Amino acid sequence: MQALNFDLVSTSFLNHLTIERGLSVHTISAYRRDLVKFENFLNGKPLDEVDPQVIADFEISLKTSQASPASISRINSTLRSFFKHAVSEFGIANPTFEMAPSQSKRRLPKALTIDQIMSLINAAYRESEPITLRDQAMIELLYSSGARVSELVGINIADIASAQSADGEITTLKLRGKGSKERIVPLGSFATKAITDYLVRIRPMLAAKNSKTNTALFLNSRGVRLTRQSAWNMVIRAAKDAGIEAHVSPHVFRHSYATHLLDGGADIRVVQELLGHASVTTTQIYTLITIDKVRESYSLAHPRARG
What we know:
- Helix content is 56%, strand content 7%.
- The chain is globular and about 65 Å long.
- It is mainly alpha-helical.
- Strands 1-2-3 form a 3-stranded antiparallel β-sheet.
- The termini are far apart.
- It contains 14 helices and 3 strands.
- It has 2 domains: 6-90, Orthogonal Bundle (DNA polymerase, domain 1), CATH 1.10.150; 114-245, hpI Integrase, Chain A.
- The longest helix has 22 residues, at 69-90.
- A hairpin with a 5-residue loop joins strand 2 (168-176) and strand 3 (182-187).
- It comes from Candidatus Planktophila vernalis.
- It is found in: Cytoplasm.
- Keywords: Cell cycle, Cell division, Chromosome partition, Cytoplasm, DNA integration, DNA recombination, DNA-binding.
- Forms a cyclic heterotetrameric complex composed of two molecules of XerC and two molecules of XerD.
């Protein structure tokens, strides 16, 4: 019997995730990175010779290399899914059946304060660089919509719409989330104004640099759709200019969006819908932040809170 080739099984698995489960390109890339680490550890050992001891040794190697508990938990999850597919499609024994799910400590998302958000928005725009009006609009939109960075750069002009309601005109935004799922979120007046300013003053100039029609909302200096990396760099630069020393990334605005909504009294089910979470359990981690604030206030204010 011919040894089972790792590349054959991994290609089949990744195709399954892409075609049948509809996972995003970035999620597939994360799975692929985890599998490459495991393949390197195997060093040519055929998959049908992998047993629970090999799996245990691999986990020890991850700990020895000082991989974080969260990374180890994610890689273990990848291997369980990978071998489940291998069992189903190639009929090998499952070596991960003894693997217990890693109980990594759940970290609270780090939210920015409202003052920090305002500092970032103000720092993003520099009068000497008119194109940064786009950057300011991007930060306003990240905070106003809770969009992931991949969703942000994927927005098209046609995804922004206006409608009349009993309370006046409202602006909505269509976002394409994980697994190609779409959701509609409202946009605040500040984000709407920032986007309008960008569309009127900056985007036509950028679009003129590319002969092909581009439907993307946010364009780079060459007139094509902005990349995730460019969005990251813009946020990091704004944080530096604002003098914010805490780690800041596009995802921090999503954390801040959820936390500030819950702090303001929004229902958790509404926040779940706005974030595009499949389960409210995922959203509930943000309630831990607000509970922590309540506990701190109670501890400081109540005369019998502490001994």
